[in-house]
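re the bet — no i am not wrong, look at it urself. input seq straight from the record:
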Amino acid sequence: MRVVSAEQMRQIEERAIHHYGIPSLLLMENAAWAVVEEIRRCFPKEEADLSGRKAVILVGKGNNGGDGLAVARHLVFQGMDVTVFLFAGFEEFKGDAALNLHLFQGMSGKCFIIEGEKQRRLTRLALAQADVVVDALYGIGLRGALPSLIEEYVDEVNCSPGWVISIDVPSGVEANTGKVYRTAIRAQTTVTFGLPKWGLFLGEGPEYSGRVVVDPISIPESYTRDEAISTFVLTDDDVRNMLPVRQLKGHKGTHGKGILVAGSKGMSGAAILAGRGALRSGIGLLQIVTPTGIAKDVDASLTEATTWSAPGDDSLNEEAWQVILKQSEKAQAFAVGPGLGQNTQFITVLDKIMETIRCPVVLDADALNLVGLEPGLLNLRNGLGPLILTPHPGEMARLCQCSVEDIERNRLEIAVAKAVEWEAVVVLKGSVTIIAAPDGRAFFNPTGNPGLGTGGTGDVLTGSILAWLAQGVDPLEAACLGVYLHGKSADNLATEYGWLGFTASEVADRLPKVRRELELKPLEKERMGKWGYDKFGLR
C-alpha cells in the first residue's frame, strides 16, 4: 500500500474533486461513515447497538472539523447522546464544514463553543461520561505545536476513559514527520483517508496513532497511480506474494546455501541466534564461519548447520579469509557481523568480501561498526553483487558520521538517501523499521512490538534475511520478508506474553508458524480497499 505526504494527499483529493468530478461533500460523508463504522468496532459485537451511548466530538474549523460534524450527525441518527465542542466561532466555518455545522445544529445533538473556564468544566464532565471521543481538531495541515488553549483540552482527552478515535491524523502529530512538539491526542484508533500519511509511521506518530485504519472514501486506486509515490507500507498481501514457492522435487541443494560469518568470545550466542533465524526461515544449507575458540559451542548448539572454525581464539582476524573463501563456493548468500567483535584486523577480510563475493551480502552489527571506521568499504562492491545493510540508529549514525538524534529526526530521508548513495538495500531498524532501496523506494514495516527490544533479536533478523536470499528471493524482497515476518513473530508471541518476557530464540522458533499462517490466510478485506493494523495491540 502506498504512503503519502500531506502535500501528495492534497493533490490526490484536488484531482479527484476537480478533474474526476467527485463532490467534496461526498468525500466528507464517506469519511464520516468510515469513522462511524470504527466507532461500532469499539464495542463487542453483542453490544454494537450505539443507542443511548455517549459521544464527545472535538471540532476545529477546517475540513477535519467538517468530518467530525458529519460524524456527529450520523451518531445522532444512531441514537447516541452526542456533544460537540467547537474550537472556533460559527462564522469561522466555511464550505462543506459550514454546511455540516448547519445540518448538525438542526438536530438534537448538543453544541458548545469553547470560550472560557465554564466550557472547560463542561468538557471535563462530558469526557468523564463519554463512551467514545472523536478528535476532529486538526487534520494533515498542522505544522508545529498545538495552540496552548487546545493543549489543555488534549490533556483532558488523554485522561478520559472513553475510546479515542482520531480523524486522519491525531491532532498534534505532524502528518509528514510524526513529530509531536509538546502534546498530542493519544488515539486508540486513527481513521485515515485515501492513503496513509508518513507521520503515522515516523517520529512519535506510531505511539499516538494506535490502530490505523485506511479508508479510500470512494477515491479509486487508479486515481493515485499518476502520483510519483515511492513510499509504501508492507501488508500481508504484499509479503505473501514475496514468499518463494517450494517445488515437490526440492532438496537442500535447491533451497539455498548461505554463509554466516559471526561470533567472538563471549558472543557465541549471536552466531547461534542468527543461525537459528536462518534455519527457521527455510535455508537449505547453512555454513557458519566462526573463531576456533567458540566453534565447538556453536556446532553443539546448531546441529543442523555446518560449523567451520577460522583462526582466532577470541575473534576472527585477517587469516579467516582463506576459510571464508573456500566455503563460499556455490553459496547463494552471505551474512557478516552478528557478535563478530570489533577486531580491526577483520577490516581486511571485509575488504576482500566486498571486492570478491558475487552473491548478495548482508552486513550487520559489528561488520557495520567496522565499516564505520572505513566508510570507503561500501564503495568496493562496484556492482559486483547486491548489498544489504541492517543498522540500528546507533550503527547508522556511525556510518553517516552524525548523531543518533539526527538519524531519528530524519529516518526516512536518510535511509533513502544512503540507499541510493551506497547502492544498497538499507534496513533502518526501529519501532517502525524502514527498508530503503537503491532506486529510491522505501517501505514501512508495521509489524513488531517493544518485546523485540531484547538482546539477540537483531541477530535472528540477519539470519532470516540470509535464508530468503539463499532461496533466491530478490534482495529488496528478502529484506522485506525478513523484517515483516520477524515482527509478526513477535506480535504472535505478544498475544501470549504481552510486550516483555519472550526471547530472541522464541522469535526465531515462531517464524515458521507465522509464515505458514500468512500462506494459508485468505485475503481479509471487510470491504474493498480497506486495511488496518494493530501496531500497539490496543484491541
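see?? The chain is about 40% helix and 15% strand. told u. also The first helix runs from residue 6 to 19. so pay up
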